[in-house]
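G.,

No rush on this.
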Amino acid sequence: MPIPHDRMYLKFRLYGFLKNQRFFDPFIILFFREMGMSFLDIGLLFSVREISTNILEIPTGVIADSYGRRRSMIAAFSSYLIAFAIFYFFPNFYVYALAMVLFASGEAFRSGTHKAMILEYLRRKGLEHMKVDYYGHTRAASQFGSAVSSLIAIGIVFYYGSYRPVFLLSMVPYVFALFLMMSYPKYLDGDIEEVKGNWSEKTKKRFSATWKDFKGMFRSREALKAIFNSSVYDGFFKASKNYLQPILKAQALALPVLIYLSGEQRTAVIVGIVYFFLYLMTSLASRSAGKVSERASSLTNAINITYLLGAIFLLLSGISTYYGVYAAAILSFIALYILQNLRRPMNVGYISDNISHRTMASGLSVESQIKTIIMAVLAPVIGYLADIYGIGIALTAISLIFLALLPVIRVSDKNKR
C-alpha cells in the first residue's frame, strides 16, 4: 500500500524542510572560531545547550502531552527566533550562553513532540504499520531542506564575507514554520482529557495523569532498551558531527582550487558544496529506511549493524584526521551522516512499538534527554582533547568508547513488546 500523499503528508514534509533551513549548520564551529573562541569554549557552549535541553526535556514533554503538542511547537519556534537574534546582535561568550539556553528551550519543546504528532496521525488513520517508511519520507524532506540550506548558506557567507549573518537570515524560514504549526489540526494534540476545576487544579490533575503513564515506561525493560540504544548513538553522533567543518576547512585551504578567493570564501564554497551533496545523500537514506528495514532479517538486526558501522566510521575519521588524510576522514564522516539518517526512522519505529501512544511525546523526550546528557559530557571533553592533542586524537578516543558500549545497549527481538 503506497503512502497517502494527503494534506498532512505535505505539511509534515514542509515542516521538515523549513525546520532545517538553519543556514548556520555547516559553519557553526567556524562561526564560533571567527568570534575568537577556542574548541573548549565551543564545547562549553554546546554543553550549556545540552544541559539546558536536558533540564527542560521532561517538563516540556509532559506539557506537550498534557496541554497540546501544537502549543509546544509554537513555543519552540518562538524560542528559536529569539536565540537567532541574540547570536547575530550580541557577539559575546556569556550572552551566547543565554542564547544557547533559549535554543535549548526550542529543542526541548520540539524534540519528540512533532514525531508524536506524526505517530498520532498514523494511529488515527490506521497506518501505524507504515511508521518507519512514513517517518523516513518526512525526514527525507528535512535532509533535502538541509541540502538547499547549504547552498543558500554559501551565498550568504560569500556575499557578506562572514559567518555571522547566517543567524539573522535563518529567522525568515522559521517565521514561516511558526505559522505552519498554527495551521495543524487540533486532533494532533493527542488524547487530552477534559479536566474540571480552576487553573491550578487542572494543572495538577493533568500532570498527575500524564506522569503516571510516564513512570510506567521506566518499569519496562523493553522501552528502556529501545530508548538507550537510540540515544547513545545519537549523542555520540551529535557530539562529533560538527568536527567535519574544520576538517573540510583544512582540506579546502590545501586544495589548489579557487585560489583567487579569500580563505573564508573558499572555505564557504567547499564546505557548502560538500554539505549540499551530504544532505542529498542523507535525504535518500532516510527515504530508504523503510525498504532497508524490510530487507533486513529483522528491525533489531538493522539497528545493531548500523550502530556498529557508525562506531567504525567515526574511528576511521579520527585516525585519518590524525595522519592528515583529510579525504578519507571526510568520506568516513559522510558515511556516518548517512547511517545516522538511515537508522533514525528505524529507532523511532522501534521505540513506538514499546511505548504507549498517550505518552509518546514524553517517551521521545526521555530519549532526547539521555542523548543530551551524553553530548553535554562529550562536547567539552572533545573540545579539550582537540585543543591539546588535535581533532584526530579527540575523535579516535570517543569512537573507542562508542564502540565499547555496543554489547551493553544492543537490542534483540526478545526486547520488542
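When you get to it, here's the other one too:
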Amino acid sequence: MHNIFDKQIDRRNTGSLKWNVADEELPMWVADMDFETAPEIMEAIRKRAEHGVYGYTVLGEEWYGAYQSWWRERHGFAIQKEWLLFCTGIIPAISSIVRKMTTVGENILVMSPVYNHFFSSILNNGRNALESLLKYENGVYAIDFADLEEKLADPQTSMLILCNPHNPIGKIWDRETLERIGELCLRHHVLVLSDEIHCDLTKPGLGYTPFASISEQCRDNSITCVAPTKTFNLAGIQTAAVIVSDPVLRHRVKRGFATDEVGEPNVFAAEAAVAAFTRGGRWLDELNAYIWENRTYAEQYIETEIKGIRAVKGEATYLLWIDCSEVVGDPVGFCEFIRTNSGLYLSDGRAYRNGDGFLRINLACPRALVEDGMGRLKRSIEAYRDRICG
C-alpha cells in the first residue's frame, strides 16, 4: 500500500531555503520536512485564504483552547489560558526573552552540542555563551552534573537554555534528569528557558516530559517555548506560543514581545495552529511511525554498509546524529567534501559546538530520498577514507 509520506514533492524553485541547491544535490540539512502538512491544516488555510480579506488578526478562544487541550491530552500538562503568549517563532521568542530577562555581559548556559541558533540569540545580544559539555561515552550522551552545577553557581550565570527533547542528539530528558536540572537552577537562582519545539516528534510509544510539569517550583522558574511548526511542517507560517505561569515573569516577557514586535499573529497563524492541535493527531501518529521506519533503515544501513561511522541512538526529532570521528582527521572541510563528492548536503556537527567529527542528517523525507542519501553518504565516506589514507 502506498504511504502518503512516500509522495515526492518538487520543492525546487519555490523559495525553499532547504532546496535552494544545485540540480544534482540532495539537501538533508535544515530541519524542515519534505512532506505535505496534514490535510486538515491545508483545508483550514484554504478556507481562510478564500475569505479574501487578510487584515490585522487577533487570537480567538479556540487558539488558547487548542494548546491547552493538546498539552493536557498528549502530555499530561494542564496549562491555564493566561499563561499562553503568542510569538511569531521560537527563535524570535528566545532572542526577545534573552534581551528582556538578562543583562549584557551575563552568562547564559547551554549544554552542547546543541541547536546552533541558541548561540546566535545569546551572542548577538551581547551575552556570554557558557557551555556545559555533554559527556559522550559508548555512543550515549549524558549530562556532566558536576560541571553543570559549577557553571550554574557562577554569579554571572542568569539563565539556562534547555533543549527538551535535545537537538541534535535526539535525546528525551527523563523526569529524574529534569528534576535535578530544576533543583540546581532554583538553588543558584538561574531562570530556565526551555525550547520544546521537538516534543511531539518522538519514537512511537514514547512521550516527553514538559519541564514546567516537574513541580510548581520548576514551573514558576521557567519559560517554555512550544509550536506546531516543527511537528506539522509549518515553519513558514510563523506561529508559536510561550508558556509562562509566573505573573511577574509573564509581564516582562509580554513587554519584551511588544518592544520587539514579535507578538502579533499573521492571518494564518492561529488558523494553522488550531487545525494542527485539534485535528492533526492521527496524521502525526502516522508521521512518527514513518519517520521511525526511516531512522531504523538509516541506522541499519550505517551499521552494515558504512565502515567507521556510527549512528547515535535517538528517541526524538527526525534528525540523525552521526559519529564520524573514527574516519575524520581534521573536521574542517569534511562536510563540504561530502557535498562536493556526492551532492549530499548535511549539517556540520561543528555548528552545534562540541560536535567535531559529527554530522546531522534530516530523515523527514520520502524513503526513496533516505535511501539515496545513504548511498551518497557511503560513497563519500569511502572516497574520504581513500583520500586521507593516500
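The domain at 4-39+281-389 is CATH 3.90.1150.10 (Aspartate Aminotransferase, domain 1). The radius of gyration is 21 Å.

Enjoy the weekend,
O.
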